[in-house]
Design a protein that fits this description.
Shape: elongated
Structural class: mainly alpha
Radius of gyration: 25 Å
Strand content: under 5%
Length: about 400
Amino acid sequence: MDGRAAVEAVFREEQGRLLASLVRRFGDLDLAEEVTADAIETALVRWPVDGIPPKPGAWLLTTARRKAVDRLRRDKAHAARLALLQVEVDRAAPAPAAEPGADLPDERLLLFFTCAHPALPAEDRIALTLRCLAGLSTPEVARALLVSTETMAKRIVRAKHKIRTARIPFRVPTPGELPGRLPGVLQVIYSIFTEGYAASSGPDLQRLDVAEEALRLARVLHRLLPAEREVAGLLALMLLVHARREARTGPDGDPVLLADQDRSRWDRTMIEEGRALVKPALTGGAPGRYAVQAAIAALHDEAADLTTTDWPQIVALYDVLLAIVPSPVVALNRAAAIAMRDGPRAGLALLDELAGEPRLRDYHPYHAARADLLARLGRRAEAATAYRRALELGGTEPERRHLRRELGSMEG
């Protein structure tokens, strides 16, 4: 690789660890980001001339630390902090080079828990996680979350300000705190994945770059917390769902329903990796929400087609999931599974019971599911009304084209 490509490849892999190590050392996220950027610029100049160091991550860390010390020395307001940090030893080190025997410390856990701290608004948690742990630039985060770069820049600044003013600690929770804090981290990663798997709006049904960043974050978290069953469950769920990505859209980008997907295009390697994680995620106590959802996804991925899918077992798992997460969206998915097990009339009855749920009133998948069951029962006029309501509520352009075709078939 040329020098710039080498720097970009290393940075993508090491950025989260580098930033986390600097944050732990200096206690300032802005400073850590600034000196990380400076270290990258230095590498872009030096590596094409001197060659890529044997331990590029350690090289970047040493360079960034020195640059942080230089900045703190110039800023008299931080002189006391400099004394406390006792970083003068870095200035006495030799010129930037690989540090023999030293690996870049993996302190990304503290960033996971800082970026997903419950004191931050949900949208800020997602933005900071993509910025700090996925290594996306502010414009890239803005594109991922479908907002303007200016809006995203303000959001990230606001989140950093909150961390400073609320004195949110850069640390990993204690074992006693972990059960209360880990779900927030998992929810952030799953929210990023969900936006990639099924975009909330825009020209594409899937945004594979976003989904794959979330999958990479889940892999990192699983390596850092291998004994946490729900971390394994989340990674399994994402693998088993993402395995279907190539079959979920047609040549025109429009959605292909599960019943019509070419299952030979599903990623079998990814499915096997996900299935291997489901068992440990379900073993050792009451299962968590992601482990149960992963088990459901595994049953779908194991089936040869829709008719041979183990719908009774899927319904039973949805019963378990509904007890863990009493959500109307889970109830909607359970109703769809019951429609496959017991027929569309049984599923429709359950959907009609959910009609008063505030969260489903403006949720276009609810109305699309209801329209599908009405159409299967031959109630075309009612199905057309439900399809119109789904269209009113938005969705991506491919989803809307699909809904318009279904509406046309009901009206025709």
